Amino acid sequence: MTPLPPADPRDIASLEPVLIVGTGLIGASIGCALTSQGVEVHLWDLDPANAMVAAGRGAGMLSQLDPGDYRLVVVATPPGAVAATVAERLRWHPSAVVTDTASVKSAVLSALRETELDLSRYVGSHPMSGTQYTGPLTAVPELFVDRTWVVTPRHENSAESVERVRRLARLCGARTVSLDTREHDTAVAEVSHLPQLMSILTAANLRHAQRSHLPLAGGGIRDVTRIAQSQTGMWRQILTANRPAVREQLSQVREDLDTLIGVLDNPDELESFLAMGRAGARSLGGKHGKEMSETTTVVVEIPDQPGALARLFADIDRLGVNIEDLSVEHDQARDAGFLSIEVDRTRADDLRAWMREHHWGLRS
Ligand SMILES: NC(=O)C1=CN([C@@H]2O[C@H](COP(=O)(O)OP(=O)(O)OC[C@H]3O[C@@H](n4cnc5c(N)ncnc54)[C@H](O)[C@@H]3O)[C@@H](O)[C@H]2O)C=CC1
Ligand SMILES: O=C(O)C(=O)Cc1ccc(O)cc1
């Protein structure tokens, strides 16, 4: 993972001490990122064992300050508990800006509006990074580096409150994007909730497969089904909170599925459909926000021999080409693997020539 970038001392001074409420994967990862930047962090969790594990992983201290001392409270509880926890913390910590990390923002805001609390110190946010795991043992300080962190400011927030949350994201290495609450929920239905369900659909469909067919599974299905392993309880809450937007996405996919089934007998139309998939994947861009069109993939065959990968990396290193991303795929039938290396488009031909010169087999 990319290391955390150096912190701006002004960012630290303006938001500490920080209190993190809910020290699971996200809360503890934020805590670890902040403490590694030198920020004073305190931790609280409904389950004291989780707070203890998070503290043990370096996410912050278990001791609690006077409630009025905190300048930033980060609520990272499961989505269903977020609104009540934010409300409670707004009441308890009069000097703090309170933010949350919930994956759906409108439901939290509607519930908070029902409390009739002054919400000027509440600024919603959502780090667009996670894993299929849960709990503080799986926390990673670099989880948010180079990822997008959405902030959902409202007109009643002061510029300083919003900036405090942006500084939090920056200290965790993320880049911030400001979105209206409703637009955020539509966006995450498109880029997070539907993909989660497509992963689950693919994985669930394996129940129809014969057990003896499963060992044929290669890198593709493993990539597609990784997030299907996520906690069902958390996703039940996320999808329920965002059901109008998710329903719309699913209906669109239902139409596409019907079209796809219909064009299977027409190779030209089928290819046009497949091209929409390529275009969609490319529209996401590459690592560090680099447009994918700026990079290209070189696929190198790696013999299944000890040290082959190390030799390959050493050869690439000698050429001085930066690896933007990579993935390995195994060819079960041939005791070989394929390393897909994403490199700057302008260096791809040099790399291909260099690889051939050093007797590596290329697939593309
Ligand atoms: N898991 C992911 O990939 C991502 C999750 N999120 C959001 O971040 C939040 C946290 O998610 P995770 O860290 O994955 O969950 P998690 O299950 O790993 O951690 C949640 C923690 O909150 C604690 N908790 C539960 N109720 C509480 C309460 N009332 N008060 C204080 N602590 C309480 C639990 O004991 C647990 O330690 C969720 O709202 C989720 O929507 C955001 C981005 C990514
Ligand atoms: O594991 C991944 O790749 C994810 O993208 C996880 C994720 C889950 C929920 C969110 O609200 C945001 C990100």
From TrEMBL:
GO molecular function, one term: prephenate dehydrogenase (NAD+) activity
Species per Swiss-Prot/TrEMBL record: Acidipropionibacterium jensenii
SUPFAM superfamilies reported in the protein's UniProt record: 6-phosphogluconate dehydrogenase C-terminal domain-like, ACT-like, NAD(P)-binding Rossmann-fold domains
EC code: 1.3.1.12
Gene that this polypeptide is encoded by: tyrC
One Pfam family cited in the UniProt record for this chain: PDH_C
Domain ACT: 297-364
GO biological process annotation, one example: tyrosine biosynthetic process
Record-given protein name: Prephenate dehydrogenase
Every Prephenate/arogenate dehydrogenase domain range: 16-294
Key words, A-Z: Amino-acid biosynthesis, Aromatic amino acid biosynthesis, NAD, Oxidoreductase, Tyrosine biosynthesis
Pathway(s) of this molecule: Amino-acid biosynthesis; L-tyrosine biosynthesis; (4-hydroxyphenyl)pyruvate from prephenate (NAD(+) route): step 1/1
Stated family: Belongs to the prephenate/arogenate dehydrogenase family.
Catalyzed reactions per annotation: prephenate + NAD(+) = 3-(4-hydroxyphenyl)pyruvate + CO2 + NADH
